[in-house]
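Re: weekly structure request thread

Next one in the queue (471 aa):
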Amino acid sequence: MAQINTRKATGPGTIKNIQIFSNTEPKKSVYLTDLIIDSFKYYESLFQDVIHASVTYIDSGGTIKAKGGGQLTTAVAGLPITGSEKVNLLFEDQNEEEIKVTLYVNNVTEIVTDSTKSMVTLSMNSLELFNNDKVRLNRRFDGKISDHIEKILKGGKGESGDSLETEKDVDIEPTVGEYNKAFTNKKPFYMMNYFSTRAVPEGGQGNSAGFLLWETSEGFHFKSIDKLFGQKEKKSIIFNETPGNPPKGYDIKALTFDKQNRNNIKSKLEQGTYATRIITFDPFTLNYEVSYLNAGNKKQSGPKQKGNEDTLNKGGEELPKLSGDIKSAKGGQNDFSRTTFQLLDTGSIPQGKTKSGVDQSDDRTGGNEQVEKKEDKNAKPGETLNQSIMRLNQMNTMKISMTLPGDFTLHAGDAVKVDSPQLSAARQSRKRQKVDDQTGGLYIIRDLCHYMTKDVTYTKVNVVRDSFGKK
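Done, posted below.
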């Protein structure tokens, strides 16, 4: 792992508002923007359910009157700030791109305290993170997984108290197939992440599965990995050592660049990243079925196997190719490195309606749609479980960490084009330097942090993709 740094820096953005409201007196508030802000950090990630932020500030004690109208004191003591206070945040980068969010205090840490001042760090999270611990799902959901996610996030008519009831925008990609589930005392985010590993995108039946749930300043998102890699690039980023603005065709010039090949072959084989086997068993018929998925780029005889890379949206040209010396079980479709087992859920909670006035105790009278579906399988693990395992593990094959000039238009889940120089002994000048076509191309922002001080504003991103070679 090699990290390269340039000397170029970026100027400051503007923290326009950090307003904290009292829990005991809702109309009482304090503006931290009137104090000395040491640093501010804002985070988004594909692998975190909600956004979070932290601010470190210096308080000299003349911020707000103490309880009862006494002398002036610190915000922590006078508001007081004990946890769960509402915080309105508004901040912008140098290009006047704003982020406006409302978070709630999760933790208060007084770093330094003396007779003249205190340095305090407030950690803040989305309201939904706290509501998640106050809500339990005790109901049945029928239909598509994408509909389940929307109901858990937004709720519906007559469903108050049985969802997160978020007022934020939700961007949900439709799923295919039905998955009926009855919840017993489960938390919302636990169940939504459970569903994420079983959701299938349109056109992905038998070949691709796996969704991600995450939040940005624009709301909640529920997207398939294939959808993320099928996006058009939002920004193009280059890292080079030449001074000045980005070259033609690029929007951003990276300040630091850390490239990591995370394709640990032993680990990937254990996880079943490129070839898996699933054995399903039906307890009602006593039948079992063995299915194989192989995403490798080896030439296949006959029709393509399920999960083949040609059926996937990839960031690069092709998935990593394993050495032919690595042993296969029997060759062909029996090439696998991980086996999963799944008990089929047949006829346990079929979806359906009954006809009014019909005696449902006798199937011969008809009218019981649920009984008619008694042999239907709930979901299709043979087309979701291993496909999801493979796709989620493929996603982090290549990772690049970069520090960029502050850019608040970027969000977790955005697609970006990333290029860096190709090292060549024949290179005569930097102007003629070519980009690296092996690791350059489309990436997805996995993690993002906006970092602000009074002097600088940076955006740190981790971008990932599943394959190598520029398309």
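The helical segments are 75-78, 127-131, 145-154, 188-196, 225-229, 265-271, 369-372, 385-394. Confidence is low (pLDDT under 50) at residues 1-8.
Next request, please.
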